[in-house]
Design brief:
By secondary structure, this protein is an all-alpha fold. Helices cover 69% and strands 0% of the residues. Helix 3 crosses helix 4. The N and C termini lie far apart (64 Å).
């Protein structure tokens, strides 16, 4: 088999991938992205097994902001059944960020709070 044929066999089938993603309901795509953002934010807050080794509050802030925007914008589209746990997870991350900060943000100024409003303890 020539190198050209080997390269053709390994090339991704973009047409098949497009058909596959077209079959995934929007709510599943949105919740999957939200869970990935939550997981990445948790790692950057130092909440993973390795803890402080991966702690980066600047990165966590960006991820929480993106998550807040996604959850807020999509809440009416994905139903309360899906939105409620995402909101709970978002609030938990916002509170964890506040706890992890040496100088906590003023209420309403924390990550994602421009979308959710001020977040206070449970």
């Amino acid at each position: 088999m020539s190198d050209a044929n080997a390269g053709q066999q390994q090339a991704p089938d973009f047409e098949q991938m497009t058909r596959d993603i077209a079959e995934v309901p929007a709510v599943e795509v949105i919740t999957t992205v939200a869970v990935h953002l939550m997981s990445a934010a948790a790692v950057n807050l130092g909440l993973a097994e390795e803890g402080p080794q991966h702690k980066d509050l600047d990165e966590a802030r960006k991820l929480i902001n993106a998550l807040a925007g996604l959850v807020t914008a999509s809440a009416t589209e994905i139903s309360s059944f899906h939105a409620a746990p995402l909101r709970d997870g978002l609030k938990s991350l916002q509170l964890a960020f506040r706890e992890a900060s040496v100088v906590p943000d003023e209420p309403g100024q924390g990550p994602g709070e421009k979308f959710t409003g001020p977040v206070f303890g449970r």
